[in-house]
Specification:
heterodimer, A: 115 residues, mainly beta, 4-stranded antiparallel β-sheet, 0% helix, B: 111 residues, 6-stranded mixed β-sheet, 5-stranded antiparallel β-sheet, 11 strands, 53% strand
């Protein structure tokens, strides 16, 4: 199994630009999570999906952030417009029906730098 | 509210010694706990988990201990190896809520 795949690994952009982060969960997993990691706040849950449906987006910072899951094998996290304070590592994780929202499998993350 | 914190933000251990990483939690209703290891440039990797109806659980070279009386969780790594150098996170879960992660402890193994 290839695990959770995220792209790009690194993204450098200028303030005001649109950023799209991509994630392919582990095949067969029903849950998909987007996390943000910073030194100040640690790992924060932004949003999660169950069977492609957004369940809880209370962690999404503001309207500039949006996430979609058009099918079971793909999800995007979009920031528009981006700001320097969005600089962080963004992780996607997935989990199976067996483990629900407990045992999560994480991707390698996207290091986002907004200049 | 929930609070998961670590007593020691950094820990240095001699290779071959045992490591103990501690974690405190404040929500007595938390019923599931999990440890993750995060190496530089990688995502968190599952190590071991434990439910609140258990006090101890063992894996390969790792043991998690849960003390519900003092709301304390620890991860013990036996015969620590250089490859164990990483940041270790504990996380707690209450009922159907999602995992809440602590801030992490950096473990450095000295050869």
């Amino acid at each position: 199994d290839a695990g959770v795949i995220q792209s790009p690994r690194h993204e450098v952009t200028e303030m005001g630009q649109e950023v799209t982060l991509r994630c392919k969960p582990i095949s067969g997993h029903d849950y998909l999570f987007w996390y943000r990691q910073t030194m100040m706040r640690g790992l924060e849950l932004l949003i999660y999906f169950n069977n492609n449906v957004p369940i809880d987006d209370s962690g999404m910072p503001e309207d500039r952030f949006s996430a979609k899951m058009p099918n079971a094998s793909f999800s995007t996290l979009k920031i528009q417009p981006s700001e320097p304070r969005d600089s962080a590592v963004y992780f996607c994780a997935s989990s199976s029906r067996q483990f629900l929202n407990e045992k999560l499998f994480f991707g390698s993350g996207t290091q986002l730098s907004v200049l | 509210g929930e609070s998961v914190g670590l007593h020691l933000p950094t820990l240095s251990v001699q290779e071959g010694d045992n490591s103990i990483i501690n974690c405190a939690y404040s929500n007595s209703a938390s019923d599931y706990f999990i440890w993750y290891k995060q190496e530089s440039g990688k995502g968190p990797q599952f190590i071991i988990d434990i439910r609140s109806n258990m006090d101890k659980r063992q894996g390969q070279r790792v043991t998690v201990l849960l003390n519900k009386t003092v709301k304390h969780l620890s991860l013990q790594i036996a015969a620590t190896q250089p490859g164990d150098s990483a940041v270790y996170f504990c996380a707690e879960k209450t009922g159907a809520n999602n995992l809440f992660f602590g801030t992490g402890t950096r473990l450095t193994v000295i050869p």
